[in-house]
Design a protein that fits this description.
Strand content: over 45%
Helix content: under 10%
Oligomer: single chain
Largest sheet: 5 strands, antiparallel
Length: about 500
């Protein structure tokens, strides 16, 4: 009977783990001679990824619209630059995927007799990333778009927010930033817009979502209204952007506030810490009702000495029950993009009450700066940003992409590198304890049940550790040893009688 029971458990284990292994995990550096940035990423129907940003021409100094396509396992399918003139800049900010087409938003710079004019830029691309159509939209005189976020609403329109920049004589800087809101149809027709000129020197809008009753939108930004003392504010807008009501964001979370709808009654926000009670230099997450009443709050930080900063564009994403928030740990405020620091991508998977499921860091051997994340269809998450090593690079950044599974790991058994350490897990089979003898340093041990859930995680001693398994039920388990870069360096099976 015990033998039959064991065979049934083993068969069930293989069946469930075959589903777990359908997740793809990889890390990838895309390096060219030019400086590269990726702002936005989407997943297509094939499970591949298309991301957009800009690439700098090393000879002219102008930017081109930059597109990278990866397959589901991280292999590079193609890179593409769209730059119609080597005397003007072209930048992509956002990408959307709808009905097997890609929709990209950015800005184009036009040179009219030495005067630069900027226009909002829309492109529709087919599945091969070939341009089907494109449109340009005028901006107010002497303004250009510095930041843009967008989504496709329930009317299948592309709703856009961000901020423009204009020259100003107001001290302490010759520039002034202003929020804007715009809407175009999925086919590129201009519908409505509102470009604001605000008295504040820095007045911003970061992200926009649709109200649950579809009557308008909520946008999140910084210091739109002088009547509210808090820096971070929520803007309530009509469908036509002709009415704006301003509320303070609870806990004063600011700096690249990303938003996502958890369910019919809850919005989740992620940003960097501001004033108390939000700790300074921390990754903050807050849930509110649609009426802006706070529900739950939490924050995450590498340690007391390092600055954590939220992802530059998309720092929160939700798919099914998987909620991810993200940022950069050991962020350099003085030199945020080309630093001599060592830093990390910081990724946290949280429950709906904002408590942590797990929290990991990726990088640490150069300066890493996170731009965007995407919760993927397989339950995992993909992160994209920059890697810069000041000892080997000169003012040009590489693209660093990390795709993790639902447990936050980069590597599973299919991609395990050669094990440089000697590790023994015994006794196997065992009962109420197992022992781990290893020559590796700074490793964690994880034990997973047949559902892929981590039931034990423990930091290992330098030579030998003992794991108490008395509380576990009899059956098959899967173990893995994880190094300080969060990679699985050894895996195996362990059976409890």
């Amino acid at each position: 009977m015990n033998k039959i029971r064991f065979l049934l458990i083993f068969a069930l284990f293989l069946f469930i783990m075959s589903g777990a292994f359908s997740q793809n995990f990889f890390e990838k550096v895309i390096s060219v001679a030019e400086d590269q940035i990726i702002n936005s990423i989407i997943e297509n129907n094939a499970g591949g990824f298309v991301m957009v940003g800009r690439i700098k021409d090393a000879n002219t100094g102008f930017f081109g619209g930059y597109i990278i396509e990866l397959d589901s396992t991280g292999n590079l399918v193609q890179q593409k630059t769209i730059q119609y003139s080597n005397t003007n800049s072209h930048i992509f900010f956002n990408i959307h995927y709808f009905n097997d087409s890609y929709f990209i938003l950015g800005i184009r710079q036009f040179n009219y007799s030495g005067t630069y004019i900027y226009k909002l830029w829309y492109l529709q691309l087919n599945s091969n990333l070939e341009t089907i159509s494109e449109q340009y939209y005028n901006l107010p005189s002497e303004k250009w778009i510095s930041y843009m976020n967008s989504f496709i609403d329930s009317d299948t329109n592309i709703v856009i927010t961000g901020y423009t920049t204009r020259y100003d004589t107001v001290s302490p800087s010759p520039y002034n930033n202003d929020p804007f809101f715009s809407k175009i149809s999925i086919m590129g027709d201009s519908l409505t817009s509102n470009f604001i000129s605000n008295d504040y020197h820095i007045s911003l809008s970061y992200d926009i979502i649709e109200k649950i009753d579809k009557s308008g939108y909520f946008s999140f930004g910084f210091k739109y209204s002088s009547s509210i003392s808090a820096g971070s504010q929520r803007y309530e807008l009509t469908k036509q952007f002709d009415s704006i009501e301003i509320l303070s964001v609870p806990y004063n979370i600011n700096s690249y506030v990303s938003s996502s709808i958890l369910n019919d009654s809850i919005i989740v926000l992620c940003g960097s810490g501001g004033s108390e009670p939000a700790p300074k230099y921390s990754l903050n997450v807050l849930s509110t009702t649609f009426d802006n009443n706070p529900l739950n709050y939490n924050y995450f930080k590498m340690d007391g000495t390092k600055r954590d900063y939220s992802g530059f564009y998309q720092n929160i994403d939700i798919f099914d029950n998987n909620i991810y928030i993200s940022g950069t740990s050991n962020f350099d405020y003085v030199n945020p993009f080309l630093s001599t620091f060592d830093s990390w991508y910081h990724l946290v998977k949280i429950n709906s009450d904002l408590s942590s499921i797990w929290e990991y860091w990726y990088g640490g051997d150069a300066y890493y700066f996170l731009y965007s994340i995407l919760a993927t269809n397989d339950g995992g998450c993909i992160m994209v940003g920059n890697r810069y090593d000041y000892e080997t690079q000169n003012q040009e950044r590489d693209i660093y992409i990390v795709k993790v599974d639902s447990n936050g790991l980069i590597t599973w058994t299919q991609e395990i590198p050669i094990d440089k350490s000697e590790t023994t897990v015994y006794p196997n089979p065992g009962t109420n304890q197992l022992n781990i003898k290893t020559t590796g340093n700074e490793m964690d041990f994880e034990l997973l049940n047949i559902n892929g859930q981590v039931v034990i995680r423990q930091m290992l001693d330098e030579n030998q550790s003992t794991i108490n398994t008395e509380s576990l039920e009899s059956g098959m388990y899967f173990y893995r040893l994880i190094d300080k870069k969060n990679k699985a360096v050894k895996t195996g099976k362990w059976i409890k009688y």
